[in-house]
Amino acid sequence: SSPTVCLLRSIRHSNLASVS
Known about the structure:
By secondary structure, the protein is mostly helical. It is 85% helix and 0% strand. It has 1 helix and no strands. It starts with a helix and ends with a helix.
């Protein structure tokens, strides 16, 4: 619900893509 959570989730998703 917070912009911080959204940003964190986006970064986390990016990390997963980088690992792949």
